[in-house]
UniProtKB/TrEMBL annotation:
SMART domains: CH. Transmembrane segments: none annotated. Keywords: Actin-binding, Repeat. Gene3D superfamilies: Calponin-like domain. This is Spectrin beta chain, non-erythrocytic 4 isoform X1. GO terms for molecular function: actin binding. Pfam families: CH. The keyword Repeat applies.
């Protein structure tokens, strides 16, 4: 504060002191900081992608281990659950109850109806689904599909 002139008020003196303490920017340091941040962000993204791939593989194996009882199998967790048929079969195997028959057809509305039947069954079983709708599964939302399978694992395992 000794560097501040007497006619400056307290706020101006604080601003001047803060400006005097800032490092002098040079192109090298700005580039170094930017590249290190970029590396850090790309590393975090790579680790998140790796975690998602491991979860997808693990959950696919878990689903297939239960669907094997009814001679069914999925190859891609996100695509094979979209129509709601395999999701319904999985819930039937896990619960031992019969669910309403899936609607025939391959149009989006049929898929939405089938997934909605499965989600409605989960709600009847008092399984709490946070922000998961039939459109999320039909659209192939990776995060919510993994979350749905994790919730099913926690409830029925």
């Amino acid at each position: 504060m000794a560097n501040a002139s007497p006619d400056l008020d307290n706020a101006d003196a604080q601003r001047q002191l803060n400006n005097n303490n800032r490092p002098i920017s040079s192109g090298f340091w700005e580039t170094e900081c930017t590249s290190s941040k970029l590396f850090e962000c790309s590393r975090i993204k790579a680790l998140a992608d790796e975690r998602d791939a491991v979860q997808k593989k693990t959950f696919t194996k878990w689903v297939n281990s239960h669907l094997a009882r009814v001679s069914c199998r999925i190859s891609d967790l996100y695509n094979d659950l979209r129509d709601g048929y395999m999701l319904t079969r999985l819930l039937e195997v896990l619960s031992g109850e019969l669910l309403p028959r899936p609607t025939r057809g391959r149009m989006r509305i049929h898929c939405l109806e089938n997934v909605d039947k499965a989600l409605q069954f989960l709600k009847e079983q008092r399984v709490h689904l946070e922000n998961v709708g039939s459109h999320d599964i039909v659209d192939g939302n990776h995060r919510l599909t993994l979350g749905l399978i994790w919730t099913i694992i926690l409830r029925f395992q």
